[in-house]
Amino acid sequence: MKDTSAKDDSEDDLLKKLHSQNRTVLFHEYGTQLRVLSDDTMILNVLCGRIMQYGVEFPLSDHERQQYKLQGDDYLRTLAARVLNSPDTYALRGRKC
Fold first, then answer.
1. Kind and range of the H or E run holding 39
2. Pairing of strands 32-37, 54-59
3. pLDDT (tens digit per residue) in 58-81
4. pTM exceeds 0.85
5. Separation in Å, CA 73 to CA 54, 67, 69
6. Which helix (DSSP H) or strand (DSSP E) does residue 30 occupy?
7. 45 Cβ partners below 8 Å, 6+ apart?
8. Among 84, 31, 93, residue whose Cα is nearest residue 61
9. Rounded CA gap, 13 and 59, in Å?
C-alpha cells in the first residue's frame, strides 16, 4: 500500500499558502496563468485534459524562475506545453485542481 500522507500534507500546505496570501497575476493566456504570492513564490497553473479538463498548479523551481527571468513569456509557453504533455509529473510538485 502506497503512503500518500506526505503528498496530502504538501498539497494542504500549498492550498493554505494559495488562499492565505495576496497574489498578483504576472502572466495570463487561456489555459495558463502565473501568479506570484506575497512571499515571492511563483505558482504556475495550466489547464490540462481534452474531454475532462483540470488544472495542474505548482510552484516554479529556482531553475524555472531563472529561465522565466531570462526568456520571459516564451519560457512559460514552453513550460506549459511540457505540463500538458506530462501533467502527472508536475502535479506531484503541487496539485491537480
1. none
2. unpaired
3. 999 999 999 999 999 999 999 999
4. no
5. 22, 10, 9
6. none
7. 32, 33, 34, 35, 55, 56, 57, 97
8. 93
9. 12
pLDDT at 5 over 60: no
Distance CA 54, CA 95 (A): 10
11-25, pLDDT tens digit by residue? 666 655 555 556 789
Distance spanning both ends of the chain, measured CA to CA: 24
Alpha helices in the chain (DSSP H): 5-20, 62-71, 73-85, 87-91
For residue 48, what is the enclosing H or E element? strand 42-48
Angle, helices 73-85 vs 62-71, to 10°: value is 130
C-alpha angle 50-52-55 in degrees, rounded to nearest 5: 85
Q: Looking at this protein, which amino acid is placed at residue 8?
A: D
